[in-house]
Task: structure prediction
Amino acid sequence: MWGMLVAAQTAHHARTFGEWFREDGLRILLTLLVAGVATVVARIVVRRFQRKLEAAPSLTQALNLQRVTTLTHALSATAIVAIWTIAALVILGYLDANLAPLLASAGIAGVALGFGAQSIVKDTLSGFFILFENQFGVGDVVEVQTTANPVSGRVESFTLRVTMLRAYDGTLHAVPNGNIQVVSNKTRGWARAIVDVKVGYGEDVDRVRQILEELFEELRTDADFSGAVMDGPIVLGVETMGDYAMVIRVVAETRPRKRFDVERVLRERIPKRLDEQGIKAPMPPAAPRPGPASG
Result:
């Protein structure tokens, strides 16, 4: 008697499990399988995207490769979290779980977190697009317009939330990415060295030009200087007419990180060469001395 009852209950449970497996179990397994395949596909797509970025001509430096790695890891993690969150919700639906309270709680928590983490989300999204668009990287010298005031310096580190800038005087600025409004990158492509030379009105501009061109020819034979210059230097001509002197502008296209070095060399060598050729730097007229006070 007891043996028959146990056998009947076992058959009932087996039949019930079999029906559940046919109705819901297969769908759950299929959902897990689809989520697993989607995860593999997402990783393959992100990996191909990473190789494509790494193969770009402008991304051969180690720092730029680090930027690509950071970006692709963020993309991969976001895709995987989204895939498995959707899969979990679908499986809970198959198990007849009431998702309304869960979704309502998630919605309330999302609203609360949204108000409390608005700046974090904004910073993270801004950092993601800075990476994606390659606006700047570690080692670049940039000037950024923020919601507070302009900040300039060399990028020492970069995350999705904050950019660390080391100013020329050594100050380290932490700039949230969401506060960056305009980025001026001074170390991309090429830069222009600009040096203004003052000469007196009595000097022959053509002679000054000839002296400077001879100096520039000598500088082009200097390996250190020529390695920093992409084109020039050249004399543009008289830029402005001041109260006591003419301003002659000299320009040169340089490698991005060599602009200030080239300007320093030109500022050192130009006055020295002009002085050797008898062209003195003009001096502003002396201010009139006050007369004796009347008694």
